[in-house]
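Service request form, structural biology core

Requester: graduate student, group of Dr. S.
Request type: structure prediction, single chain
Budget code: on file
Notes: please return the result as structure tokens.

Sequence provided:
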Amino acid sequence: MDVTREGERLMVEVSGLVRTELRPMSRTRFFARMKGEVELDFLANGEIALDWAGHDVIARPV
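Core staff response, request fulfilled:
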């Protein structure tokens, strides 16, 4: 998963899926529609906690 900034917008791209805008819900929580609904929480340790269509996933930086 790649998260990038385009001007004022945050974008997310997951291998095999279309790049999608992240819509803010709070300072650290965002929402996107990518093959299901996903909510992303940016954590202080650099990880991203995802609730992807009811499945909890942790993304770690590489």
